[in-house]
């Protein structure tokens, strides 16, 4: 009965409120709010996700605006329109990061890096592209984005360009002894740490093209990054120094996106940086584990830990369809949304005080 009340939530807010107001006092206690969460946070097979008690209390406090220990009907209206409706009917973007030739079989073939998977090389990447293509074929995302590393020939990250820029005195390595994958500090200004990579994804070359086996969705959007020769750009949102953004944030806002699904290459570099920035920008963020491949095993684990600690979710591609359709609703994403609503309220209060 309670689950049905949630499923009908877009039809009758008052009916939902009444269904969970068990003692009929025209307000919702923490215990009654907990029942809402039990109905909300479950998968399409009926499994109820456990929400930590401290998260329940923090979410309840977001909607108990007058802090009287209850959520009244006016407060529930805010909860309904800004929280429940998003959880039940999210607006989803699928972001495929840098599935380009140079990372698969070209100059920066990451199967040659430390996280190589038994030397499977090209077949290894078919295992990445196939599940991405299956998602494209079977899941109705509201929008699909493809990012591309798009470097000029004189890009700062290329090891063969290391002598084009002065090295800062504090750099642990200099132009004569630095090797691929080492990190140096360029003089700037300001001084800038830079990991050195083989020349890759140079604009308008074969290496910069999306892999031929990757399906490209009609009306999808391509985002080009790393176009500034003086700064690297791992994230699809920003360059590494946050000097300039791409068009991604504006595009997501234009489409009213609530949830961002991230996958691609490399797990611990561009994919991880993108997921981190999506979370920082306030998006409910889902990292699709089997649709990613990385450079370093320890860095991949660090990426996963960072995403989870920021209330993102890491899933297998087989779980994505039910999540996109709002049938599998994760409490981590609900908590993330509630905290964003809280932050937004605090920002508004600070703004009003300044005025």
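^ structure tokens above, recovered residues below v
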């Amino acid at each position: 009965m309670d689950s049905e009340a949630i499923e009908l939530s877009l039809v009758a807010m008052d009916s939902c409120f009444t269904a969970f107001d068990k003692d009929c006092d025209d307000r919702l206690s923490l215990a009654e709010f907990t029942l809402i969460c039990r109905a909300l946070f479950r998968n399409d097979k009926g499994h109820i996700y456990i929400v930590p008690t401290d998260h329940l209390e923090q979410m309840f406090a977001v909607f108990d605006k007058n802090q009287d220990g209850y959520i009244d009907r006016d407060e529930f209206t805010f909860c309904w329109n800004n929280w429940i409706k998003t959880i039940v009917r999210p607006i989803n973007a699928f972001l495929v990061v840098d599935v380009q030739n140079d990372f698969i079989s070209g100059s920066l073939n990451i199967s040659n890096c430390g996280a190589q998977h038994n030397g499977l090389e090209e077949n290894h990447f078919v295992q990445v592209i196939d599940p991405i293509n299956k998602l494209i074929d079977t899941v109705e995302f509201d929008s699909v984005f493809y990012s591309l590393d798009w470097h000029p020939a004189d890009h700062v990250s290329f090891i063969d360009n290391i002598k084009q820029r002065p090295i800062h005195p504090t750099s642990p390595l200099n132009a004569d002894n630095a090797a691929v994958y080492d990190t140096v500090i360029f003089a700037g200004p300001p001084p800038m740490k830079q990991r050195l990579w083989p020349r890759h994804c140079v604009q308008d070359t074969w290496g910069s093209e999306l892999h031929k086996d990757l399906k490209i969705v009609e009306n999808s959007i391509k985002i080009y990054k790393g176009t500034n020769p003086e700064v690297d750009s791992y994230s699809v949102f920003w360059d590494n120094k946050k000097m300039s953004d791409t068009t991604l944030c504006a595009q997501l806002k234009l489409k009213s996106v609530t949830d961002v699904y991230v996958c691609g290459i490399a797990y611990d570099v561009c994919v991880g940086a993108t997921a981190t920035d999506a979370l920082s920008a306030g998006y409910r963020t889902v990292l699709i584990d089997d649709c990613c491949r990385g450079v370093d095993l320890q860095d991949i684990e660090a990426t996963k830990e960072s995403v989870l600690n920021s209330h993102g979710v890491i899933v297998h591609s087989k779980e994505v369809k039910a999540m996109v359709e709002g049938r599998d609703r994760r409490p981590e994403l609900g908590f993330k949304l509630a905290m964003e609503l809280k932050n937004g309220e605090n920002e508004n209060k600070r703004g009003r005080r300044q005025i």
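The chain has a mean pLDDT of 91.
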